[in-house]
Design goal:
Blueprint: H1 11-21, H2 25-32, H3 37-43, H4 59-71, E1 75-80, H5 88-107, E2 113-116, H6 127-143, E3 148-150, H7 158-170, E4 176-181, H8 187-196, E5 200-204, H9 219-236, E6 239-243, H10 247-258, E7 268-273, H11 278-286, E8 291-297, H12 302-311, H13 315-324
Parallel strand pairs: 1-2, 1-8, 2-3, 3-4, 4-5, 5-6, 6-7, 7-8
Bound molecules: dihydroflavine-adenine dinucleotide.
Dihydroflavine-adenine dinucleotide binds near residues 152, 271, 273, 294 and 311.
Length: about 325
């Protein structure tokens, strides 16, 4: 069954998808993140099929999608795209954008949450700067009763992200949580410590290119560790978001939650990415599961798109088709 809402692919597109399916995740991540290719694509303003995965360039575009999802029974969270910012003025602009999101989204009857990346708020410049900026945004969010999760980025940032999370909690900000990636060898240890602190955690497999000394390279190992982390978190975390499009995992967690008399009592939800396997998210909601969709917006869609292409190389067919249509 196709999970796309696009027109069905032609025979030649299916063949191309099969061929591209053999291209590895690492190759696509390296190519799309190449400093030579990124500016070319952005300079020519090619959207490269990004509209399938991104709500639009403005917060208004994002809010429209959030309303639509709400009408269809989904929870959602918003992110503004951008990361690895090394310019202080751009960091200040990102802080202002996040503050505007909190005010606008907090005023809408949507019940949405947000997520943010610490390298967008200054972590690539200075850890204290990122902490101060996150503190400012989260303090405002608390006034608006809004939850903002700290996304997890590449392994080089994990220690700093967890340190900042703990400092924020130390400041009394309980409206935040973290993300743990199952491809990292360290993650079970990190999660065990966080569970003792009453963490609100999102569990993902991990989207960055990581070396064998820090990350499992075989998908089977990443998947096995993912199940292990879910089993650790579901009972003990203050809240667990199982963020994956993996049928086997979703079926297993659905059965497990269904078998519990308390149904985990509101302490769990599935999370999916906007535009990825939309039929799957519809199916989960129809079955009565709590499902939150991550809705990104903004002009910095390029790196985000690269990751979505790397996760499923056949997506390149759709990207190339949209290029040809220009
Ligand atoms: P897996 O790769 O095993 O895929 C399962 C199924 O879904 C397969 O059939 C596959 O083809 C399909 N699929 C997966 N990706 C697809 C795509 N892009 N298009 C079409 N089909 C696709 N990572 C991170 O490092 N830090 C973070 O903070 C986050 N945050 C985050 C939030 C949410 C809500 C989600 C769903 C994911 C993340 N991720 C993330 C990304 C995550 O680490 C991972 O890269 C993707 O979820 C893809 O892996 P799956 O778990 O879906 O499994």
């Amino acid at each position: 069954m196709s999970d796309s809402t696009s027109p069905p692919p032609s025979r030649s597109q299916k063949t191309l998808a099969r061929v591209l399916g053999g291209v590895t995740r690492g190759v696509i991540l390296r190519v799309t993140q190449s400093p030579r290719i990124a500016p070319y694509v952005q300079r020519h303003g090619l959207r490269w099929g990004a509209s399938r995965f991104v709500a639009g360039e403005s917060l208004d575009d994002c809010i429209e999608v959030l309303h639509d999802l709400g009408r269809r029974g989904f929870r959602s969270y918003a992110i503004v795209l951008g990361e690895s910012v090394t310019d202080r003025e751009a960091v200040a602009r990102a802080v202002a954008t996040h503050a505007e999101m909190v005010r606008r989204l907090g005023a809408e009857p949507l019940g949405v949450t947000m997520a943010m990346k610490l390298t967008q708020l200054g972590l690539s410049i200075d850890e204290d700067l990122a902490f101060e900026n996150a503190l400012e945004v989260l303090s405002l969010a608390r006034e608006h009763r809004m939850f903002i999760r700290l996304d997890m980025e590449s392994s080089a940032h994990v220690d700093a992200t967890l340190r900042i999370y703990r400092r924020l909690r130390g400041e009394g900000l309980s409206n935040t949580g973290v993300v743990i990636q199952s491809y990292l060898r360290r993650s079970a240890g990190d999660l065990a410590a966080l569970l003792d602190e009453g963490v609100n955690v999102r569990l993902v497999k991990g989207a960055y290119l990581e070396s064998p000394d820090v990350a499992f390279q075989r998908k089977a190992d990443v998947d096995r560790n993912y199940i292990r982390l879910i089993e650790m978190a579901l009972d003990r975390a203050s809240f667990t978001a199982v963020a994956t499009h993996d049928d086997a995992v979703l079926d297993r967690v659905s059965a497990w939650v269904g078998s519990r008399r308390d149904g985990l009592d509101g302490r769990f939800e599935f999370q999916l990415l906007y535009g990825v396997r939309p039929n799957l998210s519809e199916r989960l909601v129809a079955a009565g599961h709590p499902v939150r969709i991550c809705v990104p917006y903004g002009s910095q869609w390029y790196i985000y798109l690269g990751r979505r292409l790397a996760e499923r190389p056949a997506n390149l067919v759709f990207a190339l088709r949209s290029l040809r249509g220009r």
